[in-house]
Amino acid sequence: MLIKQAPDIAPSEITDYQLYLNRRSFLIGMAALALAPTVPTAAAAPPAGAPLPASRSERYTVDDPLTSFENITTYNNFWEFGSNKDDPSRLAYLLKPRPWTIQIDGHVARPRRYDIEELLRLFPLEERVYRLRCVEGWSMVIPWIGYPLASLIKRVEPTSKARFVEFTTLHDPTQFPGQRKGLFNLSSLDWPYVEGLRLDEALHPLALLTFGLYGQVLPNQDGAPVRIVLPWKYGFKSAKSIVRIRFVSEQPKTTWEKAAPNEYGFYSNVNPAVDHPRWSQGTERRIGEFRRRKTLMFNGYADQVASLYAGMDLQRNF
Ligand SMILES: Nc1nc2c(c(=O)[nH]1)N[C@H]1C(S)=C(S)[C@@H](COP(=O)(O)O)O[C@H]1N2
Ligand SMILES: [Mo]
Fold first, then answer.
1. Total domain count for the chain?
2. What confidence tens digit (pLDDT) does each residue in 255-270 have?
3. Chain-centre distance of CA 6, in angstroms?
4. Whose CA is nearest to atom 20 of ligand 1?
5. Is the pLDDT of residue 302 over 60?
6. What is the CATH number of the domain that holds 108?
7. Residue 37 CA, ligand 2 centroid: distance in Å
C-alpha cells in the first residue's frame, strides 16, 4: 500500500511580493508588445507561462507572505507524475493541457462537455491568495486565479438528486508516467484520481475553479489546465487536471480513502485537534520559513466554513 510521508524540507528563499508584482506587470507589458518573454528574474524561476489577467480580490486574501513561484512549481504532490516532490516539475512537459475538455454530467438539468477555452471565459477571473495545507505537514500561500466553482455549478443546474460532486483527473499513462503499470509503480494509486465534496461544500464561495497562479496559466505540475482549490481542506482534496465533474446522490469513494481509509477521510478538513494516525496535525512547516507554525482550525477559514459542519462529530468525520 502506498503511504504519504511527512517530510521535512530544506528552507528556501523568502518570497518578495513586490518582485512578483513587478514581474507580473513586466510580463503583461511584454505580452502587449508581443515579444518573446525571456524574463530576467532574481530567483532562478522556471520558464514563464502565458499571462492570465485577473482582478485581485480584496476579500479573498491573507496577510501571510506568498510562497515563491519557484517553490510552488518545484515542490509538488502530483502522483500521476510520481511520488517524489520533484517528479511533477521534472516530468510536467509530458502533459498536454490543450486541447482539453471537461465533461459535466450526472444529476444536472444541463449536462455538457465544455472546451477549456470556453470554460475559462464563462465568468470573470479573480486572483485570490489562499493558504494551502498539505496533510503531510507543510503549507504554502499561493495567489491562485479562477472563479467560484459555485458559478459553474449554478449554470448547469443540479437537480434535487444531486447531493455530492465528484471530480476526476485525466487518466492517460502516456502523459502521466505515474499511471503506467510496472515494477516501479507497484504500490501506486488506483487511477484515475477521484475526489469529492458534498454539494453545499462545492457551492461554498471559497471553493475555486482554478486556471492559473502568480499571474499566469497553471503550470502543468500544479494541475493544468483546470483544478479545484479548497483552502479549508487538506491539499489532496484539491484535485488537479480535471476532465469530469459529476453530480451524484451517493458519497463518492475518493482515491485516498481507497488507499488508506483509516488515514484519509472523505471530509479531510484541516483540523489541528485531530491527528493523522502516524503524525500530529498541530503544527506545520510553511515552505520557505524556519520556525513551524501552529495549524489553524479549518486552515484559518473557520469563520467562513464552520457552519457547514455544525453538529457534526469532526473526530468521526475526519
Ligand atoms: N490529480 C491529483 N491531484 C492532486 C494530487 C495528486 O497527486 N493528483 N495531489 C494533491 C495534494 S496531496 C496536494 S498537497 C496538492 C498540491 O498542489 P500543488 O502541487 O499545486 O501545490 O494537490 C493535490 N491534488
Ligand atoms: Mo497533500
1. 1
2. 999 999 999 999 999 9
3. 19
4. 222
5. yes
6. 3.90.420.10
7. 32
Q: Is 239 among the annotated ligand-binding positions? A: yes
Greatest alpha-carbon span in the chain: 56
Cell 500521476 -> residue: 80
Closest-CA residue, ligand 1 atom 24, reads 239
Among 8-17, 143-152, 238-247, 256-265, whose mean pLDDT is lowest? 8-17
317 occurs within a structural domain: no
- Residue 315 within any structural domain of the chain: no
Q: Which domain holds residue 257?
A: 11-309
- Cα separation of 192 and 138, whole Å? 25
Q: Give me the pLDDT at residue 17, please.
A: 45
Question: By three-state DSSP, how is residue 274 classified?
Answer: coil
pLDDT tens for each residue of 82-98: 999 999 999 999 999 99
DSSP code of 185?
Answer: G
CA 201–ligand 1 middle distance (angstroms): 19
Give the number of other Cβ atoms within 10 Å of residue 201's Cβ.
22
The answer to the question of residue 1 being in a domain is no
Ligand 1 atom at minimal distance to the Cα of residue 72: 21
238 annotated among ligand-binding-site residues: yes
User: Contact 287/71 with Cβ under 8 angstroms?
Assistant: yes
> Would the annotation count 169 as a binding residue?
yes
Residue 59, in any domain of the structure: yes
Closest ligand 1 atom to 234 CA? 14
Ligand 1 pocket, residues with Cβ under 6 angstroms: 76-80, 132, 134, 169, 193, 222-223, 235-236, 238-241
pLDDT in tens, 169-227: 999 999 999 999 887 776 689 999 999 999 999 999 999 999 999 999 999 999 999 99
Helix, strand or coil, per DSSP, at residue 77: coil
Q: Which atom of ligand 1 is nearest to the CA of 241?
A: 1
